[in-house]
Design brief:
single chain; alpha/beta; 26% strand; Spore Coat Polysaccharide Biosynthesis Protein SpsA, Chain A; 174 residues; two-stranded antiparallel sheet; 6 helices; globular
Length: 174
């Protein structure tokens, strides 16, 4: 059951240069990566936001909030999602991490102080609004930006953290 105190933020704004086309439209198991991420976040979070670039013109079955920046960096989408969220804690999922489960997202949310990240990196992760000033200071690395905050590292099953960067990566998932 979705938790009203959580906002799910789906990051759909990558440039997909290695993939060759928008990853959000790539299909896995009968649904697009965007639909899959939106569904997974919706199973956990009472509020949902998709964040990307309006200029990309992605046609998705849900609205996309423009991140307001010319930069293509996940930290920009993360900060935009935190600013727009109606709750204090956001669970953030990049569209190219299609195997992340409801349970993994809940583990991240439960561990969040200022932030909670997996052993593999800052995304997917859970972030409290009080992390926003650190994320807005101009660093392009999420890990460096939150380095001075109370960050929990959650050991998740590495298989769930598979990242789709190329069509071959997607094909290897099934």
């Amino acid at each position: 059951m979705a938790r009203r105190e959580l906002t799910g933020v789906l990051l759909v704004g990558g440039d997909s240069s290695r993939f060759g086309s928008p990853k959000a439209h790539a299909r896995l198991g009968g649904e697009t990566l965007a639909e899959r991420g939106w569904r997974t976040l919706g199973e956990v979070c009472g509020h949902l936001l998709a964040v990307g670039k309006a200029a990309d013109g992605l046609e998705l079955p849900f609205p996309v909030l423009d991140d307001g920046s010319a930069l293509r960096a996940s930290i920009v989408g993360l900060a935009a999602g935190l600013r727009a969220a109606p709750t204090d804690v956001c669970v953030v999922l990049p569209v190219d991490c299609p195997l992340v489960t409801q349970g993994a997202l809940l583990e991240l949310a439960a561990a969040c102080r200022d932030a909670a990240v997996s052993q593999a990196g800052p995304l997917p992760g859970a972030f409290h609004k009080r992390a926003l000033p650190a994320l807005e200071r101009g660093e392009l690395s999420i890990r460096r930006a939150i380095g001075s905050l109370a960050v929990a590292v959650v050991e998740l099953d590495p298989a769930l953290l598979a990242n789709v960067n190329t069509p071959e990566d997607l094909a290897a998932l099934g």
